[in-house]
């Protein structure tokens, strides 16, 4: 079977190939440099630029730069002339979707460790105004390294600094040569953080103070929030995909239909990248409200459900949503106890909650609850505790679903045995063991507090709630909480999760 390429586009007859051929024939100028060429960027930013180009709103292509020496994507990307297929699979507006499209927005890939001069040539292109990146959270960190003009820096911020310095020098400090830099790494204030590191590296390298001033005055580092599940290359089903498409695609990428991109920048920048005009879910606004909404609703719902659903014998998020008892419990927590507390317009927060639960029903994603369980004490503290405390303060009563989720969490962390340093719990219905995946400090504390269970469950609950290292506050001081948690845990251990949920839902 022939591999996807520009030559293939000329030879094969199909609707998907014909659409791509028309885009490729436009030969758009390079206007974006992208540090990173992995699944997420190809299923998110590169797809968005492709959408802009389809509608004649941007008319530019992307140069993708390999971020680490061990990268393997650039040779594959160049072998396919920058082309790859994106499969969007999931539920959208209540309808299951499964669509394919050849993405044509990438012009080429560059390995900076062998071809650094090619990257510097990109810096000399006045049409290049935008820089996107996704090098993971580990990539957006400071590394002290030497500056060698003809060799690529190892770190992502080092590459940005060297790129900007070459551009500054080549264009003789022109204000018009400044870049709009839009990082997509999942850390708070990612744009501000990247700029701070670039300025520190400039100092390390003894670059001119005038360059530092140019970076600060004429380059914009945008804070962002990204949200889309991109599962990447479908290894287990690629033969079926290739057969359906009629060609081989070694870079085929799978994503959900849902996407959200929040960027802190003004209208002038938004006009240069008219994502919204292309019908994309992009917002040029402060990121903080979007981050809080995502953490409290999407991440909060994951943490809310996982322990109860897993102890009920459920393995995935989709299965949890399909279970009548667990689904009622999740919906009560989200719509009745989390949403009312968010200072967001009603239509926005309800719309986001509806979209979130629709994403949970995606039949193509196997999102395992045990994966969500990692470090769940910390997750409950950061994702649910703020909603819990606000609910108590506002209503002078306990939120039923959020309280039950804390009870289920304690039951999930109930240790049965330790093997080679790994603590295991036991599933209530099937009596099968599972790993309790948390830090050694947390699991050790949990083991100690459960040791008194045979004598007094009240002691276990009291110690759990009063552990300020877990919660940052003494939860045992909240009226009626210790008694309620104890009652729930007793019911869970004696009669099972579904019976316990049924009891509190019908109180």
Structure write-up:
The protein is α/β, with parallel strands linked by helices and 507 residues long. The chain folds into two domains: 6-283, NAD(P)-binding Rossmann-like Domain (Rossmann fold, 3-Layer(aba) Sandwich), CATH 3.40.50.720; 288-505, N-(1-d-carboxylethyl)-l-norvaline Dehydrogenase, domain 2. It is 49% helix and 14% strand. The chain has 25 helices and 16 strands. A hairpin with a 2-residue loop joins strand 14 and strand 15. It starts with 5 loop residues before the first helix and ends with a helix. The mean pLDDT is 94.
Q: Judging by the overall fold, what is the CATH architecture of the largest domain?
A: 3-Layer(aba) Sandwich
| Strand line-up across the major sheet | 5-2-1-6-7-8
Instruction: Give the number of domains.
Output: 2
The amount of helix comes to 40-55%
Spell out the blueprint of helices and strands.
Blueprint: H1 6-11, H2 15-24, E1 30-35, H3 39-43, H4 45-54, E2 61-65, H5 73-79, E3 84-92, E4 95-103, E5 106-110, H6 116-123, E6 130-133, H7 136-139, H8 156-170, E7 180-183, H9 190-204, H10 209-218, E8 220-221, E9 224-227, E10 230-232, H11 238-245, E11 253-255, E12 260-263, H12 267-272, E13 282-283, H13 288-311, H14 317-322, H15 324-338, H16 346-360, H17 369-372, H18 376-383, H19 385-395, H20 400-412, E14 417-419, E15 422-426, E16 433-435, H21 440-450, H22 457-466, H23 468-471, H24 481-495, H25 497-505
Parallel strand pairs: 1-2, 1-6, 2-5, 3-11, 6-7, 7-8, 12-13
Antiparallel strand pairs: 3-4, 9-12, 10-11, 14-15, 15-16
Offer a few descriptive terms.
single chain, 507 residues, alpha/beta, Rossmann fold, N-(1-d-carboxylethyl)-l-norvaline Dehydrogenase, domain 2, 2 domains, six-stranded parallel sheet, four-stranded mixed sheet, 16 strands, Mannitol_DH_C, Tagaturonate reductase, NAD
């Amino acid at each position: 079977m022939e591999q996807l390429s520009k030559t293939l586009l000329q030879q094969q007859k199909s609707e998907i190939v014909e659409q791509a051929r028309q885009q490729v024939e436009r030969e758009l100028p390079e206007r974006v440099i992208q540090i990173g060429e992995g699944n997420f960027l190809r299923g998110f930013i590169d797809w968005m630029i492709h959408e802009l180009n389809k509608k004649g709103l941007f008319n530019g292509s992307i140069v993708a730069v390999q971020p680490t020496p061990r990268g393997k994507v650039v040779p594959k990307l160049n072998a396919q002339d920058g082309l790859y297929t994106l499969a969007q699979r999931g539920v959208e507006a209540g309808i299951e979707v499964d669509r394919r499209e050849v993405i044509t927005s990438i012009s080429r890939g560059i390995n900076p460790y062998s071809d650094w001069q090619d990257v510097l040539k990109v810096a000399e292109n006045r049409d290049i105004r935008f820089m996107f990146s996704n090098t993971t959270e580990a990539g957006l960190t400071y590394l002290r390294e030497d500056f060698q003009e003809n060799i690529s820096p190892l770190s992502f911020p080092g590459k940005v600094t060297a790129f900007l310095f070459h551009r500054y020098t080549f264009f003789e400090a022109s204000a018009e040569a400044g870049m709009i830099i839009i990082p997509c790494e999942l850390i708070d204030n990612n744009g501000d953080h990247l700029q701070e590191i670039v300025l520190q590296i400039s100092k390390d390298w003894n670059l001119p103070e005038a360059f530092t001033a140019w970076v600060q005055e004429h380059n914009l580092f945008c804070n962002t929030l990204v949200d889309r599940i991109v599962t990447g290359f479908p290894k287990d089903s690629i033969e079926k995909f290739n057969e359906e498409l009629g060609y081989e695609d070694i870079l085929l990428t799978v994503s959900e239909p849902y996407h959200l991109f929040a960027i802190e920048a003004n209208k002038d920048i938004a006009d240069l990248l008219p994502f919204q005009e292309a019908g994309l879910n992009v917002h040029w606004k402060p990121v903080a409200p979007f981050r809080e909404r995502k953490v409290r609703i999407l991440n909060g719902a994951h943490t809310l459900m996982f322990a109860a659903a897993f102890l009920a014998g459920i393995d995935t998020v989709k299965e949890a949503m399909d279970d009548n008892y667990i689904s009622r419990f999740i919906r009560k927590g989200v719509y009745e106890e989390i949403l009312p507390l968010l200072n967001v317009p009603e239509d926005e927060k309800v719309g986001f909650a509806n979209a979130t639960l629709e994403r949970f029903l995606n039949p193509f994603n196997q999102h395992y609850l045990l994966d969500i369980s990692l470090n769940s004490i910390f997750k409950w503290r950061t994702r649910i505790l703020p909603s819990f405390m606000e609910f108590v303060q506002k209503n002078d009563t306990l939120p039923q679903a959020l309280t039950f989720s804390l009870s289920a969490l304690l039951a999930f962390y109930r240790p049965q045995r330790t093997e080679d340093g790994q603590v295991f719990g036991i599933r209530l219905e099937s009596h099968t063991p599972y790993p309790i995946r948390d830090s050694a400090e947390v699991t050790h504390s949990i083991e100690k507090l459960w040791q008194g269970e045979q004598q007094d469950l009240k002691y276990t609950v009291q110690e759990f709630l009063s552990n300020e290292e877990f919660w940052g506050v003494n939860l045992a001081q909240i009226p009626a909480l210790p008694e309620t948690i104890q009652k729930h845990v007793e019911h869970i251990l004696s009669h099972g999760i579904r019976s316990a949920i049924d009891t509190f839902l019908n109180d």
